[in-house]
Amino acid sequence: MKAILICPGERPAVAALKQTLPWALLPLFGKNLLEYWLDHLAQSGATQIIVLTSEQPELVQAAIGNGARWGLSVEVVLETREPTPVLARKKYRERMDADWLTEPDDVIVANCFPGLPQHQLFNGYADWFAALQEFLPRAAGANRIGVRELKPGVWVGLRSRIAASARLCAPCWVGEQVRIGPRSVVGPMSVVEDRALIESDCHIAASVVGPQTLVGKGTEVMDSLAWDNKLLNWKTGSLVTVPDAFLLCALGRPALPRKATNWLTQLNAFYARNKGDWQLFWKDLLMNKGG
Amino acid sequence: MKIQQQGETLCITGIKELGLANCNSFGEEVRRALPEGIKDIVIDLSETSYMDCSGLGALVALGKTARLQNGEVSVRLLNPAPAVRQIINLTKMSWLFPGLTVAESAATHSARLLAGYLARSI
Predict the structure, then answer these.
(1) DSSP string covering A247-266, please?
(2) I need a surface site. Which of A58, A114, B54, B110 has the fewest CB within 10 A?
(3) Cross-chain Cβ contact B90/A242 below 8 Å
(4) Predicted local confidence at residue A140, as pLDDT
């Protein structure tokens, strides 16, 4: 069975959330939208998926590979702009006229989480947050490894360390390798993405803390999306770049999926990166030999 | 930046930015203009587009200096822009500034105080 998955293109209503990654690869509860949809399509009986993207196809390809992880065969196709489901159906179903999933499941726009079409992610910041809240209990699905429900409505990922005096209030999600310092309160209605660091005496409620984000000591994050050094109030849409890194900052570059290359390409890239050093090395060697 | 005294109230308006670059000069300027007997300092932040922790520290220090000099003095922030309000909330400093809400501007506040003063005088 075949299906088409369309990656979201421009989404001006939530433009401030846009990172360097395409929308479909933005981490949500530690996974990206494409992964959630491929999980869903594999369970729906699909075997071949065409992923249509209008930006950075190499990143999309690197993130999902050939789909073998899901037992799928995935082809990533670059489109000049995001096609509508009607256009996509017309273009690709004619080309591959074998068996397809039934309409409308044959063409999916990754605008929402699977099973939550009424909660669109990209209509606005409040909708984005509402969709995350709605999906929170489902994020720890049956095929999620390592996520534990510490108490009803509180999920914690692998290798996270939570201080004994910290408090987690349901519903909340704490991703993998998160550190939460003493006396901090996380929740309710909060999501802390993977590898975030919450220092002591913080208060996070009705908010999302992005991956690899530091929330400094004594900081209060309310009704906001805190991502790197950006603080976006999802109720008002107000965005501020926090100038003080000890309050809020990025801990490192987001881990981009690595492109699979052979050893020759890697050697070539290594040489290109260190070209100056190599030239100096040879020059020095030759001069010393001559002297 | 403009500093005006209206009775027992000191109104500060026209602050464009309050950060590391100008927090010292802001503090100095206000402290120089801080008269005896002031009970209320009103800072209009409606024009302030940028504030960092140094700026916030300058506001807290100003309140402390005023209290040392004149006893009980309240520092009120008027109309902070959403971005400035976010920084204040992020640092949990809002409790230091009572009445931190979208309120009348300092000019309107001054006018209201003046009207009250005139009404009492007449």
Answers:
(1) TEEESS---PPPPP--HHHH
(2) A58
(3) yes
(4) 84
- Interior/surface letters A72-105, b for 16+ CB within 10 angstroms, e for the rest: bebebeebeebbeeeebbeebbeeeeeebbeeee
- Domain, as residue range, for B83: 2-121
Write out chain B residues lying below 8 Å of A225, CB-based. none
CATH for B81: 3.30.750.24
CA proximity to B18, closest of B76, B59, B74? B59
**Where are the strands (E) in A19-72, listed by range?**
48-53
Q: How many domains does chain B have?
A: 1
| Residue from the list A238, A239, A247 with its beta carbon closest to the beta carbon of B90 | A247
pLDDT in tens, A55-87: 999 999 999 999 999 999 999 999 999 999 999
ipTM above 0.90, yes or no: no
Mean pLDDT of chain A: 88
Mean pLDDT (whole number) for A84-92: 91
Best-predicted range by mean pLDDT (A171-175, A265-269, A272-276, A280-284): A171-175
pLDDT at residue B114, as a whole number: 52
Best residue of A240, A241, A248, A249 to probe chain B, by most B CBs closer than 10 Å: A240
Say how far apart CA A225 and CA A208 lie, in whole Å: 5
Instruction: Show the domains of chain A with their CATH numbers.
Output: 2-123 (3.90.550.10), 145-250 (2.160.10.10)
